[in-house]
Amino acid sequence: MRFKLKMNPPTATAQQKGERICGGYIRHYKKKNVAQAEAILRDALLPYVPAEPIEGEPISLWVCWMFPYPKSAKKHQPGSSRAKITRPDGDNLNKMLKDVMTDMGFWKDDALIYAELVQKVYNDEPGIMIDYCTRRLDLFGNEWWDCDD
What we know:
About 20% of the residues lie in helices and about 30% in strands. It has helices spanning about 30-45, 90-105, and strands at about 1-5, 15-20, 25-30, 60-65, 80-85, 115-120, 125-135.
């Protein structure tokens, strides 16, 4: 399944948790900006939720986070992308996305994801491109990105 969420990607990540001490114990909680980012992702993903979650099969996942060019960016070719090598970290962005997709029923458990590629780029058309599919494992993963579903 391949689709693009046309939006400015959220920059809050699952790693941004708050802590407070209550009754001598440390309590962890979701910060407001993380909860808002999750809500934005849920709204954008809603039209793509499958009828049944994937269960018991390996999943390969490719996600491209496309951020708008900053105002300070030098001239670029329209329609081109440039690697984004600044924060937030791609693995932290993807962790929140996978958690939201798991909660929404795309797959039964994100432990099913055996192959994952995360990219962060600047692009004139911001959004999040997501491609996931089930594949039988071969010894070298040769079919990794042969997703035609």
